[in-house]
Amino acid sequence: MSLLDQIMSDYKKAMFDKQEPNKTVLNTIIAKIKNKKIELQKDLEDLEIVQIIKKEIKEIVESIGFLQKADRLDDLALETQKKVLLETYLPATMSPDQTKDLIISLIKELNITDLSKQRWLLMKELMDKYKWQIDWSLVNEIINKMLA
Predict the structure, then answer these.
(1) Predicted TM-score (pTM) of this structure
(2) Does residue 46 contact residue 2 with C-beta atoms inside 8 Å?
């Protein structure tokens, strides 16, 4: 089952069960997927759908920040619920230990001798092969610790 099929199925279930917040957020994602499909004039692959979902989550996180400052707890709970729902569609990311082990093995595999000068090589390899499986802020944190 493709990611879009899963989202559509969950949307239908949310409609049937009258789960308004879920229905609304899934409807938004489906609309964005359809718009992107029209823009690209092709069916989207799961990774392209993941990009759309990540972008939506990023917008929700920004909203959560504003709502916290405004002390609007009702809206904050709703936005948090939307974020949690959308995160269920994202692929699992590597743990911090797995990420560190991957970085170390790639440094050896790519023969990187000076990480400060060859960091781009490591980042390119990570981006090409592990783009959706790793937390990029964690990658930067690990590399910065190695450089310190």
Answers:
(1) 0.69
(2) yes
